[in-house]
Amino acid sequence: MNKSLPNKIALVTGANGGLGASVTKALLAAGATVVGVARHIEQKDFDSPSFVAISAELTTSDAAQKMVDEVLSSFGRIDILAHLVGGFAGGKTIAELDDATFEKMLDLNLRAAFYVLRAVIPHMRRAGNGRIIAIGSRAAEDPGPSVGAYSLSKAALASLVRTVALENKQHGITANIILPGTIDTSANRDAMPGADRRTWVQPDSIASLIVWLASDVGKDVTGAAIPVYGAGL
Fold first, then answer.
1. Are 170 and 156 in contact (CB under 8 A)?
2. Which 8-state DSSP code applies to residue 107?
3. Between the CA of residue 17 and those of 21, 41, 154, what are the distances in Å?
4. Beta carbons of 97 and 149 less than 8 angstroms apart
5. What is the torsion angle, in degrees rounded to the nearest 10, for the CA atoms of residue 7, residue 30, residue 135 and residue 131?
6. Contacts of 52 (CB under 8 A, 6+ apart)
7. Is 9-232 assigned to CATH 3.40.50.720?
8. Which residues contact 62 (CB under 8 A, 6 or more apart)?
9. CA–CA separation, 184 vs 230, rounded Å?
10. 178-197 per-position pLDDT tens digit
11. Which among 103, 105, 126, 206 could disulfide-bond with 149, CB atoms 3.0 to 4.6 Å apart, if both were Cys?
12. What residues are paired with 10 via a beta bridge?
């Protein structure tokens, strides 16, 4: 098998989620050492000597910095950041939206990314190289009713990642965000049992795109918000 990421250190947040498991496996198959981070994750979640599990909560600055420091202490560098942490809440209009739901969406979809990026970028700058890929949502550019907190938090994430790309293009760092439609995960199947899954995006498709963006062939792509909407355009 052609390994496009030999000897690379990849940090994957949300590594054992519905999408995260596919991304982790794809990066491992490409030859990377993967540090997988989630609230609840174990070494046995992935059967590979190149996988390392770290349990961490990333919605506070101190926790994110501690996690990054732990990775750097063990491996000395972070070549790739695949930030997959996120969450969904819907069902309320803006007029009905409660503070707790609004803050939860900001925590999961924006603040966690900001804290991790702020901790990782200085080390990538010193190395003169880095690949940052985040998972957003189609809703960032195509919002709908009753999902306002989710949509705005994902739109802010897209702006954050594109700003990072502009601020670091002279440092050998690329930053891109993928905007998927509904992903075919077990959680989404449970939440939408009657949906036509034939139009949903496969996790492996997104994982393959992340590997491509992280590899040398993707080095000229930065600041992109890449739509992956599936067959249901």
1. no
2. I
3. 6, 10, 18
4. yes
5. 30
6. 33, 34, 35, 36, 43, 74
7. yes
8. none
9. 10
10. 999 989 888 888 888 888 78
11. 105
12. 34, 80
